[in-house]
Amino acid sequence: QVQLVESGGGLVQPGGSLRVSCTASGFSLNSYAIGWFRQAPGKEREGVSCISRDGRSYYIDSVKGRFTISRDNAQNTIYLQMNSLKPEDTAVYYCAADYLCSLDPVLEYWGQGTRVTVSS
Known about the structure:
Order of helices and strands: EEEEEEEEEEE
Shape: globular
Helix content: under 10%
Number of helices: 0
C-alpha cells in the first residue's frame, strides 16, 4: 500500500525556521518525483517545491532562497527546510509523489498534510 506521511509542522514566529518531512511506505521515494504543496484557509492548493527523480529541484518565486527541498534515500524521506518564515507561509503542507515533477496539484499520491502556522 502506497502511503505518504508528513510531519514536523507547528507554530513558529515570523523569521523562524521549520523543517517538515515526508516519509513513504510501500514504495521507494527515490523512484518518484516528490512535490510539496500548501493550502491556506480559503485559498486553493498551490505548489511550493518539487524534486525530480534525478535530483533537480524547483521552487515557486515566493519561497526561492528561503526553502530547500532535499532527499534522504536511506530514510525514504523528503524534507522541506523552511527559513525566514513569513505569516503568509501559514498553511497545511502536503507532499505528493508521481513519475514527473509538477507544481500543479495533479500528482498521483498524497499525504494527509501537516499544519504550519507562522505567527507572533
